Amino acid sequence: MEYIRLTVEGPIAVVTIHRPACRNALNSQVYREIIAALQDVRDREDVRVVLFTGAGDKAFAAGADIAQMVQESPQSGRRLSALCHEAAELLETMRQVTIAAVNGYALGGGCELTLACDLRIASDRAKFGLPEVTLGIIPGGGGTQRLPRLIGVARAKELIFTGGVIDAKEADRIGLVNRVVPHDDLMDTCRSLAKTIAQNAGYAVSLAKEAINASGDTDLKNGLRREADLLGLAFATHDKQEGMTAFLERRKPEFTDF
Fold first, then answer.
1. How far apart are CA 113 and CA 88, in angstroms?
2. Digit-coded pLDDT (tens) for 33-91
3. 3-state secondary structure the chain
4. Whole-prediction pTM value?
5. Which pLDDT belongs to residue 254?
6. What is the arithmetic mean of pLDDT over 99-121?
7. Which of 132, 97, 47, 123 is nearest to 210 (CA)?
């Protein structure tokens, strides 16, 4: 792959957008490579957590590659949106936990990719925004759908309608990120968080992710029914028996299911 770097560190995969010369701008090829990398990780039995970040110190991804977009036809624009959606859906639904390590500008499609991750950890240099209306278009990578679900409709409308950019402190205040850390501590913080998650029962974590995701697509009654069904699946696993036995025996469990 030309623009994506994939490394595996034990149970943690690190996916890096690598176009630092143009602040990791996103185009069709970059999205296809993101999709290919995530599909590879999704099918691995040894990876429990995915860290998703951008190369360099300035940007996670500073939006779409405008030089490509200015030439796009309506049909091409829709195909680009479909690629954005496919990449975001992988981040959102893959059984591994996905963590966006936001090291700088996360604008447009870059912001939308972070919204699809399970967790967002921001450097104190990070900035977020969906400036598409300043270019004569609208967010097309899920921003109009995921942002309101995350921070509420009114705040999402303000960000999208103004095309404004907010800093990490404001993103934290409105609930857009899980936490803000000093820039130089970003990757160490994300790796530490990933290790904490990875040491838990992997299949149970994936079931919890599925249950939480279902909460946004259904009413409470059906969501609770789905939760009960997934709990039943967890009760059928080796890890359930191992985890509870280890607790009673006061030892560290050895989880194997995923």
1. 6
2. 999 999 999 999 999 999 999 999 999 999 887 877 788 888 888 998 999 999 999 99
3. CCCEEEEEECCEEEEEECCHHHCCCECHHHHHHHHHHHHHHHCCCCCCEEEEEECCCCEEECCECHHHHCCCCHHHHHHHHHHHHHHHHHHHHCCCEEEEEECCEEECHHHHHHHHCCEEEEECCCEEECCHHHHCCCCCCCHHHHHHHHHCHHHHHHHHHHCCEEEHHHHHHCCCCCEEECHHHHHHHHHHHHHHHHCCCHHHHHHHHHHHHHHCCCCHHHHHHHHHHHHHHHHCCHHHHHHHHHHHCCCCCCCCCC
4. 0.95
5. 96
6. 98
7. 97
Over range 185-207, report the average pLDDT.
98
23 contacts 61 by C-beta, under 8 angstroms: yes
- Whether residue 4 contacts residue 18, with contact meaning beta carbons closer than 8 Å, is answered with yes
Distances (CA, A) of 167 to 41, 105, 185, 206: 31, 9, 17, 31
Please state, in angstroms and rounded to a whole number, the distance separating the CA atoms of residues 258 and 249.
23
Report, as residue numbers or ranges, the catalytic residues: 112, 132
Residue 237, number of CB atoms within 10 A of its CB: 18
